Amino acid sequence: MVTDDSPAFHPDLTRARFMPRTSATRGNRRLLRALTRIGRGRPPKGGELIDLGDGVTIRVHRPAVMDAGERRPGILHLHGGGLIIGSATQGDPLCRRLADELGAVAISVDYRMPPEHPYPTPLDDAYAALQWLAAQPDVDPTRIAVIGESAGGGLAASLALMARDRGDIALAGQVLAYPMLDDRTDSPAAAHPRMLRLWNGPSNRLGWGMYLGAGANGPAATPLDAATLERAVPARRTDLSGLPPTWIGVGTLDLFHSEDVEYARRLAAAGVQTELHVIPGAYHGFDAAEPTAAVSRDFVQRQVDALRGMLGARD
């Protein structure tokens, strides 16, 4: 007799049982990267495509109505994809919404990815995009926030740490949707491994391994020394003080649930204003996989509301 005490998926997520347990693998990574990067060479509808050099581009969304001389909040989006697939086009709908609803200049960066471009290149590309945003004459450099999902959430967390350490750009906030924060996380870290969807332990090892310069051998084989590894992995940072207000959201059936809850706890302990939103029965990437579900709409709305508060943006 087999018993399974795994909890149910959230009732709004009716497609959950049909979703694959993971997405990117060693076998399909190249194909998925090619598919997810379709359209990245075209500007977004109503926006601009800016070339930062070295093959790095940013997709820029501005409010439909801009008053001359007015400085707007700025938002930098970082896309997900386990550090090894995806493109900035994924952020077009959200960035357009943020520009329209918050009156912000919202951009998404097509950072270079491993294994061709391991750490620190993706993070450096994100920082270059942040510097570009802060330098725009229509952006208030004191009201800039970062937002990202999954791997993009992890990069956003690393970017906030980098900005704190360098001290030249003071972020107003960070919004992290089920962020990928810890290279040590594996499937057993999940409360119910059989319930994982869209991202699992083997894929996580693949993504982190490539990001940390170990290729498909996994993060444990990284050539990085301990000090560099701490800078590369947000969850390995010992000092989280001085970071901007933070919003973190994650589902209970997400591989990253435990690491995200722990990161939120450590942020709060370090004196960082932190809001943690945990969704019972939600799997990784549920809001992208089932965007019309009520729980997904609420999840995204909470992120928009968090940014509004951080940036003092219009209602």
TrEMBL record:
Domain of life, per the record?
Answer: Bacteria
Keyword annotations for this protein, in alphabetical order, are: Hydrolase
Q: Which GO terms describe its molecular function?
A: hydrolase activity
Q: Tell me where in this chain the Alpha/beta hydrolase fold-3 domain is found.
A: 75-286
Q: Name one Pfam family in it.
A: Abhydrolase_3
State the InterPro entries in the record: AB_hydrolase_3, AB_hydrolase_fold, GDXG_lipolytic_enzyme
Spell out the protein name for this chain.
Alpha/beta hydrolase
Q: What organism is recorded for this protein? A: Microcella humidisoli
Q: What is the lineage of its organism?
A: Bacteria, Bacillati, Actinomycetota, Actinomycetes, Micrococcales
